[in-house]
Amino acid sequence: MDSSAGATAPVLARPSVSAEGRARLFPSATDAEWTDWRWQQRHAVRNLEQLERYVRLAPDERAGVQETSSLFRVGISPYYLSLIDPDHASCPVRMQAIPVRAEARVRPGELEDPLGEDKTRPEECIVHKYPDRVLFLAIDTCSVYCRHCTRRRITKGGEAELTKDQMRRGIDYVRNHPEVRDVLISGGDPFLLSEERLESLLAPLSEIPHVEMIRIGTRVPVCLPMRVTDGLARVLRRYAPVYVITHFNHPKEVTPEAREACERLVDHGVPVENQAVLMRQLNSDARIIKELSHVLLRSRVRPYYLHQMDVAEGCEHLRTPIAKGLEILQQLRGHTTGLAVPHLAVDLPGGGGKVTLQPDYVIERGERETLFRNYKGETYAYPEPEETDCSCPYDEVWQARSRELRSQGR
Ligand SMILES: *Cc1c(COP(=O)(O)O)cnc(C)c1O
């Protein structure tokens, strides 16, 4: 077989966690069914009775499914279910998909709208929190409902796509706000939309002159990789620049199928970035985050954010101390490829927005020099220059010139 066709080569025959799980749990599914994302959607496990058919639940999990059933949705694609370790309740896939009792307990300080989005929500589907970019909530369903979901107030609702009218109002909002140059489409999972519906969103958005780029936040490459068809990738490429931001949290999720999905996007000219969420006892370890970054970079996926867990309802048991994230970054920076080091982000409760943290490498900031500690703990000095005027004289010329070029449409 032509090795350059790697992104489209069949992966089902290769030994992998997913192939093993599929053979055990869905032995009668044909290849055509298994690789059909709509079959996966139809066969998703959505309640305790269905779940117990496939997984021997721990008492804490059984109670968790029961006690959260009126609060948050459960939904697991057969593919993601096939990654679950049948013997260990601490399996990272299992922990992200199956509720435990702690999730039913809302702790003091936990918020239904942890990021204060509803107060900057001028339309049903628009969150406009930052000056030059908006979040466009295009759908409220997912292929797998994450136990750590930060928008569960949206995903817990009654399975509905945005109406055509709501979508039009969202697009109008962007059109009427020339300061918006970046639209981040999220939900729910936008890749559960049909290609036609996705196009009916991408086409008008990309035609708006001030919209310079579009991003799509999705867990489909992780939870439903068969959805990433050539057809989908071609649609995305048509409206470039479209960046896909996906959400792998553990190297176990980076299966041959998941890698193929990511590489198919990249092969079509669609860059893929990853945002992971730091979760206690799931990936809260520098070794795991490093392995995740490495395996993602090998699949041409760039680690973007490592998120401190939001104070969403029922997530307390998954939160790490702030110091843990900093410790992890410290164990990455300098020790491995700079591209493998994500930004550590805290999205401030109540709507403050994201801030990033990094270990403090400055020992002392003097007038003549700054003293640093490097990644090995050694001390180095960086001297200040004589001149400190940092204004850029050419910039006025350049701004005038680029205005001129723009007005000529160049
Ligand atoms: C995270 C987020 C964005 C995008 O932030 P970046 O730092 O540009 O990736 C935009 N809008 C909202 C509401 C967000 O939460």
TrEMBL record:
Pfam family of the protein (one): LAM_C
UniProt keyword terms in alphabetical order: 4Fe-4S, Iron, Iron-sulfur, Isomerase, Metal-binding, Pyridoxal phosphate, S-adenosyl-L-methionine
Cofactor or coenzyme needed: pyridoxal 5'-phosphate; [4Fe-4S] cluster
InterPro entries attached to this UniProt entry: Aldolase_TIM, LAM_C_dom, Lys_aminomutase/Glu_NH3_mut, rSAM, rSAM_sf
Coiled coil: none
Domain Radical SAM core: 128-340
GO molecular function list: 4 iron, 4 sulfur cluster binding; isomerase activity; metal ion binding
Binding site for [4Fe-4S] cluster: 142, 146, 149
SUPFAM superfamilies: Radical SAM enzymes
N6-(pyridoxal phosphate)lysine found at: 354
Entry-linked NCBIfam families: KamA family radical SAM protein
Family in the record: Belongs to the radical SAM superfamily. KamA family.
Designated name of the protein: KamA family radical SAM protein
Lineage: Bacteria, Pseudomonadati, Myxococcota, Myxococcia, Myxococcales
